[in-house]
Specification:
Layout: H1 4-7, H2 18-58, E1 64-80, E2 83-98, E3 105-117, E4 120-121, E5 126-127, E6 131-133, E7 138-141, E8 144-146, E9 152-153, H3 156-168, E10 170-185, E11 188-189, E12 193-204, E13 211-213, E14 215-224
Antiparallel strand pairs: 1-2, 1-13, 2-7, 2-8, 2-9, 3-4, 3-5, 3-6, 3-10, 10-11, 10-12, 12-14
Length: 225
Amino acid sequence: MSTEGTAGTEPPEIISEGPRREKARRGNLAGAARAIWCGVLAVVLLAGIVALVLYLVYRPSKPQFTVLGAGLYELNTSSSSAGPTAVSASIQFTVSIHNPSARSSASFDRLAAYVDFNGEAITQPSPLPPLYLSRDGTGAVSPVLGGGGVSVSVSPAVVNGLQAGEKYGAVGLRLVVAGRVKYKAGPFHSPWRRVNARCELVMGLNKGVYGPATLLGTPGCSVDI
């Protein structure tokens, strides 16, 4: 029997399905990874939008401080070439604190106030009671700062400035109120934040005359949180 017709015939080439399946598997994995990342990105984006909306709706406003009245009950200065210069003062201020937020209540704690002249304190810091303000609420405090004959060491420039104010009948002072505040809006609570209010005012001053004092002009208060 002749084998010439089959001797040179090669077996058919068998193409393996392995590489195709591996390529398809990798494509499926890449598609699944893209889908997962797209889902995560969508969730993060949605959470950011919700947080922004809640912030815009419930964001608190800075409290507003207003000096309503003042009283001067002591003001003595001492200066000597042989000793330190000092001031002993007793000044009372009535201060209104307003929470302008219509959606958030405000709680104040660790408040303290002192009087500043030309960048130097002329009274020791005096603690104030805690204060709670409801939404769009207003409260008032009337601290007496200094007093008791307690002297505060100051520079000669401060003593000279206060003595000049007594001579001219008016002196520029700064009331400083510092503490912390936190807000509550529905289920949301903010952390405690530092709050500092500085009220610039001009007070009528006559040497040896004590009692209710006249505030000249409109005192302005700036608030930092």
